[in-house]
Amino acid sequence: EAGVVQSPRYKIIEKKQPVAFWCNPISGHNTLYWYLQNLGQGPELLIRYENEEAVDDSQLPKDRFSAERLKGVDSTLKIQPAELGDSAVYLCASSARGAGELFFGEGSRLTVL
Amino acid sequence: KNEVEQSPQNLTAQEGEFITINCSYSVGISALHWLQQHPGGGIVSLFMLSSGKKKHGRLIATINIQEKHSSLHITASHPRDSAVYICAVVGGSNYKLTFGKGTLLTVNP
Q: Is the Cβ of B35 closer than 8 Å to some Cβ of chain A?
């Protein structure tokens, strides 16, 4: 069975440009997370979905970040406009339920120039 | 104070040594995860615990719910075990994940 699939793996953009990341969780997983990870740091939650509902988006910078999970399966995370400080790895993770085993994607590494 | 504290932050060992990484937390939880991340790599789930002890190969994870403490042990450590080990707890009521800052393990040959 395929794991959590993320794309693109790498993205380089200039500041003020938009960028979007896509995540396909493991089939049947209701819970989907987007995390931001800076070099040498642990993951920081951006948003958590239960099916199509965003149940925790308190850490999402809503002035420039947006996310959606239409139909409760795939999810997209968008940044518009990107800033230099947004350079990081964006991780997607899923679990069958809120307290289930976690599965992480390989991450999308963003570099903003 | 971080809700999840890991110790040590950095650990250097010689190949073959027995390794222990500790995780203490201050909130009620429904589960605890031990995760592994190799440098530049993705995050892999090692264990999910809600009580007792689990073993997988050379890795053993234990949890004491009353003491709010978990340990990850590596027996007969190997250089390929060099990675960051992260403890994450799942909130008991809201399933919120809280991560520790990680322990960087370096195993020298």
A: yes
Interface test with B, best of A51, A104, A106, A109 (most B CBs within 10 A): A104
A94 vs A103: CA distance, rounded Å: 5
- Ramachandran bin of B102, using left for φ above 0, alpha for ψ from -120 to 50, beta for the remaining angles: left
Residues forming beta bridges with residue B61, ordered by sequence position? B54, B72
Beta carbons within 8 Å of B2's beta carbon, 6+ residues apart:
B100, B101
Name the residue among A42, A101, A104 with its Cβ closest to that of B42.
A104
pLDDT tens digits for range B1-36: 568 999 999 999 999 999 999 999 998 888 999 999
Please report which residue ranges of chain A form alpha helices under DSSP H: none
- Distance in angstroms (rounded) separating the CA atoms of residues B29 and B42: 25
Per residue in A85-94, pLDDT (tens digit) is 999 999 999 9
Q: What angle do CA B37, A46, A24 make, to 5 degrees?
A: 70
Instruction: Please give the backbone phi and psi of residue A94, each rounded to the nearest 5 degrees, phi first.
Output: -140, 160
pLDDT at A1: 63
The two beta strands, B10-14 and B103-108, are parallel
Tokens of B79: 């250089």
Calpha distance A112→A11 (Å, rounded): 8
Q: Do A42 and B42 touch (CB under 8 A)?
A: no
